[in-house]
Structure prediction request, 737 residues.
Amino acid sequence: MKDPAQLISDYFDNALTEAGISELNAWLNADASHMQRFTEAAIFEQQIREAVLKKAQIPVKHAAPIARHSAEIKVHSHRTRWLAHAAAWVGAFTIFGNSAKATTTSTSATTGTTIYTQSTIAILMKKTITSVTAAILLLGGSGIYMIHRSNESSRHRVETMENEIQSLSNQLGIKSTSVSNRRVGATNAPKTVSVVQILAVYEGDNIITRQEKAILDEFNNQLDAMDAEALKNLLVDAEKLSSPINDRLARAIMEVLVRKDPAVATQIASQLIGRSSEFLFQMSHSAAQAFDAWLTKDPAAADAWYIATAASGGLNGKSIPMNGLEDLAIDRSFARSRFTTQLRVNPAEAAAMLATMLPADVTAALKSVTDPDALRQILPKLSPEQKGPAAEGAIKAMAANDPNAAFTWAKSLGMGDQERDTLMATGIEAAVSSGKLNLAGVAEWSKNLDLDAKTRSKMLVSAATSVSLIPRENENRIDVKNSVVWDRVAERIDWLRKEAPADAAEEMVGDYLGNLSYRSHNLDKSLEAYQNEVTKLGRIDPDLTIAFAFHLQIQQNDSAKAAALKLLNTLPPSEKRDHAIRTTELNR
Amino acid sequence: MRAVVRDRTAAEDVLQETALVLFRKFAEYDEQRPFLGWALGIARFQVMGMQRDAARGKVVFDDEVLAKFTESWSEQASEVSERSVTLEFCIERLAGHAQRLVKLRYFEELNAEQIAEQLGGTGATIRVTLQRIREQLRACIERQTQLEG
Prediction:
């Protein structure tokens, strides 16, 4: 049984396998306190999400009756509309549940949507916000939504924007319609809509009426009808709007512009990238998307533009706030896109590009390489630090299917002896793990490899572990009793001692037993196997014991940690032992 | 929903469907009973309905666990609202790297492997770090609660 804390943590990090989920279900069913603990963790998880979303969202001001809740009232501009819609409903129901008689509703004859009057909203929002929050929290809503109807504050802001954009609308031949036309319940959506209206819809409540949807659709149609230059101008002017949610407008415009003319989209987005607003942040994402589209459409032109722009310093100071967090220079983002494109058409050029990229970008870019021939061309161009991850990924994939082909490929790469043999050791591990190579094969393939002691030990322990594990018949179940061939453990240990580099044997045995304990979740059996080795040796070997204890203490399992400490305390004091004890205690 | 449905999009789908059912069934709601329990009951049946749909097999829990979870959540959720403000404060207090991790995990909804791709490291190390961050946040909340209390 996995440690419950780890089980819960893995669950929330989406790291549980099907077997883990079965374990979790069984654990939750076993005891009411388990469920309580899990629920507490789930609520905490949701609260973190809420807090992070709240921090990242754009506040929306409200009229006086609800202003005192303004700190909690946000519109999440990144979420789909219907989610907000649903969450708003849920919030409303909560209130209605408490004060149904105090509120009034009406149903629009034209839209069929329940409408809340201004006074109703005020009443609703005077109720404790906690009940709304709780309801949304309960149903998993992401963010605190509210019913935000037309009010004086937003009307004033819309009017300001309307003035700002008047000349733009005229310039583009778009009829500038009054915000009053979008009042809920008004009939017949206008056939020509303005940016003002769109912003008002974006900014308005979280309920999209059919009329508002018609406005959005019409706006998209209008964007579709515009040429690239007009879209570009619209984008530039949208940036100047005082609306705090003009980034949503930017997304809508860029989506069409990227489709119509990715070159123009790339260039204008690259120019606009900045940090001072959500709009400018949005441009960094848009630029990357646009450049990808441009590379797909016309790689030569896109590449030429990039080279010229980079050379002239046009990308200097343009950082992509990736996900709003990690700053990545836009040329790094562009470089990864160029690499992916070049790999398809010119692996040699791709290789040359990789050599100039930063290690983190290389690692990310190389993950897309699965073609051994392409990789063969790329590897010679890489630095020693870059070669390892690239070649390892490829040989693991190949060796899991055909070890001989993988080893032949490794030999064809023209690497140095030790570098090549280290790569082959990785291939051997993968081949054994996939059942394509047995221990005799490992001994045969590895006997002439030029490996350092650490690499050889790791490979041998990995191989011994792999052959000791029983493939699961049912992926949904961990069968603790039948996950390891325990009755052949002694035989594997003998093999390890025979193949081990000088002075490394006992530590390897400890690693091996620790691996089995971790993989099987069977502490008792692994302790029994350890005791068998102690008996066989006639002494407690410090290397074996410390290595084994190390694997026990990393299990995040109280019993395993306690066992680790107990074993370590059987050893005479030494620097290595004392360090292991300190580490284990710190990790408890 | 996010706690019982693994896939974010699927969870949001069920949320939407639940909201719709709540809307349709609201006339049946007995005001004498707790609203949250009623709403959660409907949510649970929505999730169970999804679970039976093999094509959308994204639900984590079996029916029995789901029922217990719903009940447990209903009991606990109302007791924790006060923690939100403190939690925001504690998130602010996290170190820069930890804040980035938290944002990538909870705002961008990236998994550990995806975060590792962006920040370096492995999925396993990211998961361990996230777990430590959660523990830090819990400890911070406890400290703040004591200070304020």
In short: The mean pLDDT of chain A is 70. The beta strands of chain A are 58-59, 74-75, 105-107, 114-116, 319-322, 326-329. Chain A touches chain B through 67 residues (CB under 8 Å).
